Amino acid sequence: MKMDALWLRARVIKAIRDFFWQRGFLEVETPLLIPANAPEEHINPIFALPSRQLQTSPEICMKRLLCGGHHKLFQISHCWRAEERGSRHLSEFTMLEWYRVDFDYQNLMNDCKDLLQHVSAICLPDRRSYRHNGLHVDPFLPWQHITVQEAFLRFGQVDVLDCLRKGCYEEILTGVVEPALARFDSPVIMKDYPVELAALARTKPDDPELAERFELYVGGLELANGFSELTDPIEQRHRFEEANTARRGAFQSELPLPERFLEGLATMPPSAGIALGVDRLVMLTAGADCIDEVVAFTPEEL
Amino acid sequence: MYTVADLKKGLKITLDGDPYLVVAFDFVKPGKGQALYRTKMRNMINGTLLDRTYRSGETFEPASLEERQMEYLYKEGNHYTFMDQQTYEQVVMEEETLGDAKNYLLENLKADVMLFGEKAIGISLPNFVNLRVTETEQWAKGDTSGNDSKPATVETGYVLRVPPFIEEGELIVIDTRTGEYSTRVKG
Q1: pTM (predicted TM-score)
Q2: Residue A1 in this model has a pLDDT that exceeds 60
Q3: Is B24 on the interface with A (CB under 8 A)?
Q4: Domain total for chain B?
């Protein structure tokens, strides 16, 4: 079984690579060991050396490449997040990220659709349906779009901002909203997150409380997170500092800021970027309900 | 003291004064959100299942469970008394807690009793026990009815199906995991 899964994994990764090569993207490799990740309240990096952490995402280095004049970039790399282990989480996992200049999050949604259709046509036995928890999800059907506010109201009869204030956002999202999203037979885009849930995203021009961020769900499984990039260095520094303040309040260590990224941000062209969990895409392709089924070794097997 | 990082299948914790066994566990973390630890637990006294979700920072008391070999002494109404042969300490278990184990309890039987603090909450028996047949019908020679088993009562009062050749007064071996006849003890 695992051998089949590894073949499928290799085919999915090759299909991803072909997809971006065919569209003229530059495949890059950036260092995995970096002085600073983007500080986030709920993501803990692993420190490999006193002044070096393993990347939690390749975003910092990839955005610096955008400032350096590159316009279409993608990378498939390993990322590490401390203490994350579950049926859909590995502390070391594989991430696909891609970035485009003169793009916004709406354009990225189209990329997602093209990519999921491409991978399904090459890797799936029926050339169509991803599977999760016994459900079939067809990327060739019209995709569903719903804002976060609509989703919380429609599926949970609650206001998302209220949930954030009362500290029950995660419970409603994972207990009520995500199971409801699992009932759609097409992929679902959930979009326009409250700005406090989008540390590096640009706000909507008509509503500064909402960020141009979206999540892609397939069969209720969170697959990708994309947004229009924030390019204001002052605002970005302010949000990083807020994340550190929140960490202090939760008795978490403060994290160093990615200073060179902040220095270069003023020269970053308008762009959009997205991170997609490759292990999870393989899970959907294999119809696997647990991430353990699609990796060569789990941490416990080492 | 356990933290959420210790949660896994098989962990035993104390919750609202009762011991619970974690039977299912998952780590859930929405993008940019806080981690949740979702558990399903079984109450080790009454068997009820409980779903609980925790956040990081929460802590748990371990369930102080101890298994001790004890000897079954006697029954009084619905209460069964066991004694630790080393310390002469006695514990009482209710029929409801014992479940099917009551079918095999013969005075002086040794069994492992699970203790939660002072309270006996379960028992593990040997896989096989020998019990004497106190009542069963004679097997009529030449019976062609095709029945390959008949009911028999053993000395604890338990009734089970045995092969037709078993007679009253014989000692038989019963598998305590299934409650079924296993073989007869010769001699």
Answers
A1: 0.83
A2: no
A3: no
A4: 3
